[in-house]
Amino acid sequence: MTKPDVDPILDQLLDAALPHVAFDGWSPETFAAAARDAGVDLSVAKALCPRGAVDLAIAYHHRGDAAMIAALKAADLGDMRFRDKVAHAIRLRLHVIDDKEAVRRGTTLFALPHMAADGAKLIWGTADAIWTTLGDTSRDANWYTKRITLSAVYSSVILFWLGDDSLNMQATDDFIDRRIDNVMQFEKFKAQAKANPLFKPFAGTLERMMSGIKAPASQTDPDLPGVWRDPQ
Q1: Could you tell me the CA-to-CA distances from 212 to 190, 191, 219, 226 in Å, in that order?
Q2: Which of 95, 122, 164, 201 is the most exposed place for a label (fewest CB within 10 A)?
């Protein structure tokens, strides 16, 4: 998932906001304090962030995704199984978080009913960034199922990590391995079911139904998760 270059003033606002988030959350008070501390006129700050601190919280998540992508590209993954590469990417995403309280406050914000769509989009973006950076080439329905599955894994990992007080986050490491194992077991079950003669008629029908689903075209509106193309 490609993100546009970050405006340097937005970066300044975000850096100035973080010390306030622990006390006031991603709130209008935090946004006003960030503009004041960064020396940015409030009208300019609002032009960059029409939704105020909400846009700063989104920018903070995108900053973490960008740092993870850079770390993942620099990592030596040559000898890893693919499931270990995915697990490593999730660990890197946690490792680049420099303010756990900012994530906690963000999780609370995006759990609100009117913010749920934004939160889901951010989690999807992280899953997409991981798959894309790891070289995913799927262009059919698998493009979606991979990201849906990883979105569920990553969101559960974040919730577990926020409550983890174990030494060196060992409990979170173990939790990541268990969740990835669950996913691999599900993939194995799907392969076995597809090979089972009893399921073949259903599998064939499902494949025909899914054949019209394609991954997003490169010029697709980035706010849309994908496109449907008529197989005819």
Answers
A1: 20, 21, 18, 12
A2: 201
pTM of the model: 0.84
In degrees, to the nearest 5, what angle opens at C-alpha 44 toward C-alphas 41 and 48?
140
Tokens coding 174: 């173990």
pLDDT computed for residue 227 by the predictor: 43
Cβ neighbours around 104 below 10 Å, total: 17
Query: Cβ distance 50 to 133 under 8 Å?
Result: no
Residue 232: pLDDT over 80 = no
**pLDDT confidence of 75, banded at 50, 70, 90?**
very high
> What confidence score (pLDDT) does residue 230 get?
41
Total residues belonging to the chain: 232
CA distance 85 to 11: 30
Cα angle 188, 192, 198; round to 5: 155
Beta strands in the chain (DSSP E): 213-214, 227-228
Residue 114: per-residue pLDDT:
97
Helices (H), 25-81: 28-38, 42-48, 53-74
Copy the structure tokens of residue 220. Answer: 């697709």
